[in-house]
Amino acid sequence: MLSIAWAPLYAHPLPENHRFPMLKYELLPEQLLREGVVTEASFFTPQPPPEVEILRTHDAEYYRRLVAGELTRQEERATGFPWSGQLIEREVTILGGTLECARRALPQGIALNIAGGTHHAFADRGEGFCLLNDQAAAANYLLAHEPGIRKILIVDLDVHQGNGTAAIFQHEPRVFTFSMHGARNYPLRKEQSNLDLPLADGTDDATYLGLLADTLPRLLDEVQPDFVFYLAGVDVLATDKLGHLGLSREGCRRRDELVLRLCQQNQLPVVVCMGGGYSVRIADIVEAHANTFRVAAELYT
Predict the structure, then answer these.
(1) pTM of the complete model
(2) CATH number of the domain encompassing residue 280
(3) pLDDT in the model for residue 14
(4) Are 129 and 123 in contact, with CB atoms under 8 Å apart?
(5) Which residues of the chain fall below pLDDT 50?
(6) Could you give the 3-state DSSP secondary structure of residue 50?
(7) What was the pLDDT predicted at 21?
(8) Which of 213, 249, 263, 284 is the most buried (most CB within 10 A)?
(9) SS3 category, 49
(10) What whole-number distance in Å separates Cα of residue 150 and Cα of residue 175?
(11) What pLDDT shows up at residue 22?
(12) In 3-state terms, what secondary structure has residue 271?
């Protein structure tokens, strides 16, 4: 049985212009249950983690100001979200969900968060709809609490570079950051991951999957990770309003299968977070995300 983090507040109500991207957090669990991909027992309700686990990754003064609603207007604009106490509760809970997924993936092989993948959050600031970096915090949790976890690989396949994650682990040799993203997409100023693979606009299934199939097995051999975090953004789709790549829904599914099958074959625990998705039709977003869970269910149950 898959372990999946989900809470109703993942679909936190925002002003109307922010509402559409949040619908997937309501519709995706319903779709998976309706199809029988998972059962109600697969879902667990994440809890906010102890503050110390957030501060392993985030600057204490930034976190204090974030919680207190003391960000400047410029800082708030950079996040893309208007501040509210409920928004902060949502972000902290998503982080707690990814952290709990990391604990569950150790014995189970895999755990998934319906949300998460907030890779634009830096240690001391938020950007691009990301306030706290959930995968970075979970990686730091494992390094602090699990002696058997000596090396972590973060596989970031969202269409946008994981700039916050790259910066957080810039001087941490125990975490290898790999980002495969649109070369001309947000953020304008890229950080340096351990490995960045920038892609041309319109990159199609064959080119994308060929590059990933050539790269990821080699990385597993070279990095020798004990644990993998996978950011499975579906903003790589040709239908995405912000992505500019050319993947089909089937190509996106094959991407997920490639990553998860390699993790399974190498007996590497993996945590999967959903990341971005901004197609015009909500059905395209939900179906592509649902494929990630369908693949996980086929491989792990």
Answers:
(1) 0.96
(2) 3.40.800.20
(3) 59
(4) no
(5) none
(6) coil
(7) 64
(8) 263
(9) coil
(10) 9
(11) 78
(12) strand
The string of DSSP letters for 137-181 reads: HHHHHHHHH-TT---EEEEE-SSS--HHHHHHTTT-TTEEEEEEE
Tell me the C-alpha to C-alpha distance, in Å, between residue 230 and each of 62, 77, 149, 169, 179: 26, 28, 16, 16, 10
Q: What pLDDT does residue 23 have? A: 86
- For residue 19, the tally of other CB atoms under 10 A from its CB is 12
CA 255, CA 157: separation in Å to the nearest integer? Answer: 9
Residue written as token pair 């915090």:
137
| Calculated CA dihedral for residues 256, 262, 265, 266, nearest 10 degrees | -130
Which backbone phi and psi does 261 adopt, to 5 degrees?
Answer: -65, -40
- The three-state secondary structure class of 132 is coil
**In the numeric block, which tokens belong to residue 10?**
């993942």
CA torsion sign for 88, 89, 95, 98 is: negative
Q: How far apart are CA 114 and CA 289, in angstroms?
A: 9
CB of 152 closer than 8 Å to CB of 225:
yes
Rounded Cα distance between 70 and 62, Å, is 9
Per the structure, the count of domains in the chain is 1
> What would you report as the CA-atom Rg of the chain, rounded to the nearest whole angstrom?
17
What is the extent of the structural domain holding 232?
4-300
List, for residues 176-204, the tens digit of each pLDDT value.
Answer: 999 999 999 999 999 999 999 999 999 99
Of all helices (H) and strands (E), which one includes residue 196? Answer: strand 195-199
DSSP 192: -
Q: Identify which of 117, 177, 120 has the alpha carbon closest to the alpha carbon of residue 153.
A: 177
- Cα–Cα dist 178/153, whole Å: 7
Q: 273 by DSSP, 3-state: which?
A: strand
Looking at the chain, list the stretches that DSSP marks H as alpha helix, in order from N- to C-terminal side. Answer: 16-22, 24-35, 51-55, 60-68, 73-79, 85-108, 134-145, 163-168, 205-223, 249-265, 282-300
